[in-house]
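step 4 of 6: structure.
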Amino acid sequence: MTIERIKNLLDADVLYGNECLDREVRYAFSSDMMSDVLAYADEHSALITGLCNPQVVRTAEMLDIVCIIFVRNKIPDQNILALAEDKEIVILCTGHGMFTACGILYSNGLLGGA
Amino acid sequence: MDENLVFNYTISGDDFTRAGEASSDVKNKLKMMGLDNNIIRKVAIAMYEGEINMVIHANGGTITVEISADNIRMILADTGPGIADIDKAMEQGYSTAPEEVRALGFGAGMGLPNMKKYSDHMEIDSTVGIGTTVTMDIHI
């Protein structure tokens, strides 16, 4: 699934990475605990989270995650967005809660990884 | 590679927002060296967990990364409180991190288990009241 499709399905805003929306996302992983993400998430995944701090982007960077989706209208600050830009990780923001966001993506064919 | 490459980092213990900069730097260096992506990912994750641990538990420390032809060794040393029960600390889900650390997305009791999972060999040398040194090897 492309990031563009995810954006459309979740009615999400693109806070960084408009030029990268054609990238492919293979899996999704959702958690507010970054240690769980580090333990289980696959590369080329999207990370769905309600946690909003720079370590979310750092975690995504280490795992080669291509896209972070902030749920519940969490808006990352400029430091977080600057780090995402530096690491070329697309940042989406949706008004859906985590359960609903995951449900929409899953029912449209995006699966969890390992 | 004829000689080992060595990189040294000092990790500040008082700025959580900057935690991970050393791991990020190592990841970039390994990428530039053209190493296999899977190995780079293992090094980045293992070192990042260790770096976060240092900031959360030990008020910072030092990380030395030694790269030879067939191995990447990370030595993470701190002068923090030490680990009282290493076996317990290695259990998934066991954590001594305070609630404010969990609010930041860490302290789920996965740090040391993750470091072991992503490294080929890991040793922990810890003395309560003195500090902890974690040595991890990832084979190339």
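step 5 of 6: annotate
 - Chain B has one domain: 5-139.
 - Chain B touches chain A through 26 residues (CB under 8 Å).
step 6 of 6: archive
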